Structure of Uridine phosphorylase:
Amino acid sequence: NPHLEKMREDILYHFALGTGTHDFPVLFGDVKFVCVGGSPSRMKAFITYIAEELGLGSPGCDYPNICAGTDRYAMYKVGPVLSVSHGMGIPSISIMLHELIKLLYHAKCSNITIIRIGTSGGIGLEPGSVVITKQSVDATFKPQFEQVILGKTVLRSTNLDEQLAKELMQCSKEIGQFNTVIGNTMCTLDFYEGQGRLDGAICLYNEEEKLQYLKEAYDSGVRNIEMESSVFAAMCNLSGVKGK
């Protein structure tokens, strides 16, 4: 964003961080990997796990929330890994990504990989399977993210890094603990009707119609459903950041 250069100070409001109050290159300049997920507690558990795996932490070590000045998001860091919560749904992760990408820019980070991890609803898979997203598709199975900007509808690509998908699949084969597939991830605007559930407060379709829709999704290459992947893919593409 060229407008950032004209700003005396950039305040990342929802992170409770700012270029006038924090030294971004010192705090985050060594970051190479960012893992994001919905829940603050899960992202803290993740950074504790990754610290142990990388041999960068001691048993029982606590990791402070870098965004403790706000209750919107939580952020944890160990070595070159940043772990950030994004809440639930496209609007929430979109706000987080705007500020995260600016944080990485101000910190002068390079060659960054961002990976979204989290639960999702599988289609045609055994529970506990891992889906590596090839591309995010909307509820009509199109690989696009639709956003209205200044009253105009803008369509953005939601393809994700193909080489990174292959590398993650190879990691899964080496670990050998999870059934892992590469497939399309359907991103919806809602947890209930948007995903064909029958147990929401409102439901104007029947089980047969639901199952037909899920079959169409599967036939189009969809293997799981969640609510954040489309804007995640679009913003990674626009920012030139490798994402998955």
